[in-house]
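Quick start: what a row looks like.
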Amino acid sequence: MPKRVDHQERRREIAEALFRIAAARGLQAVTLRAVAAEAGISMNLVQYYFATKEEMLTFAWRRIVELTGEIAGKGIIEAMATGDERTIVRAYLTGVLPDGERRRMLAAVQIAYFAVDVTRGSQDPDQEPLLPHLIRALTELLRKAQTKGDIPAHLDPSLEADALATMSAGLVTAIMVDTYTTERAAEIVDYRLGQLFTA
């Protein structure tokens, strides 16, 4: 009996090969042929799943979004169980910090995508942006905390969420170039939250 092929799993394996190339050499090094070689499969097989490089890049980005959510999700779920907005906000901010080899590779791939976006002057419309999701979640949490009196009433939760998300993105980049350790970045997050949650 012929072995059943899990097509979604095969696409993910191809995406992993793309990640390894992009993390090491940037998206400019990603081609269908290069990914096939990295994955140890034929060019024809890659083209069976992805007719074009653009289609492959779009799938790989969606996989990055999925993996990022999975990695951060466990800590966020645990934090939500506490019912404490500061703890949950911290989980969101520290959950994206690249801690360990796997998370550093995924962060490097995200940065490779962003480098292309900067050159182009905009994000590919087929690529779901990550930052707006983080900002929306933080804004809602900060509004709840403000209602409880944990955050000063004069602060704008939306602007504070923007500032926290931007800080978090900057910390990811700083960790990737060894300006900060993950531990130091977490200290910076805690310091900023200590200024924000004053109750």
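That is the whole record. The mean pLDDT is 92. The longest helix spans residues 53-80.
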